[in-house]
Design brief:
single chain, alpha+beta, Arc Repressor Mutant, subunit A, 7 helices, 2 strands
Length: 121
């Protein structure tokens, strides 16, 4: 994701890191749904493509929101974990969710596992 280096705005900085559709959905899946494997993120209902997923996970690792390590049981795959920095996005995700529930179509529902995730943060 391209970053704007000419702005001192904290909103601009934040959006450079997690302001696209996919990044916050990956963080949501880690925090609320406890996903930690690449294939688990690919299985999300929104249907992220493999190249976008790889790019967003790399970006999250580079910015310290996610750690990546080899799976001790299967060295050919990686395990991703949210850091404190990612977990601090819980209230942001909750606010976005609340806004969507208030102003979006009545058919919207909170993501599975969301209540348990917000109670822990």
């Amino acid at each position: 994701m391209k970053q704007r280096n000419n702005s001192n705005c904290p909103i601009c900085y934040s959006l450079d890191i997690f302001g696209d559709r996919w990044t916050l959905l990956i963080v949501r899946d880690m925090v609320a749904n406890h996903k930690q494997y690449y294939r688990e993120f690919l299985g999300s209902d929104e249907g992220i493509s493999t190249n976008i997923l790889a790019d967003r996970l790399k970006n999250l690792v580079e910015h310290g929101l996610v750690t990546k390590e080899d799976d001790p049981e299967n060295r050919s795959q990686s395990v991703y974990h949210p850091t404190e920095k990612a977990l601090a996005l819980g209230p942001v995700l909750e606010a976005i969710m609340d806004w969507g529930l208030k102003y979006g179509p009545e058919s919207l529902t909170p993501p599975p596992g969301w209540q348990a995730a917000t109670a822990a943060s």
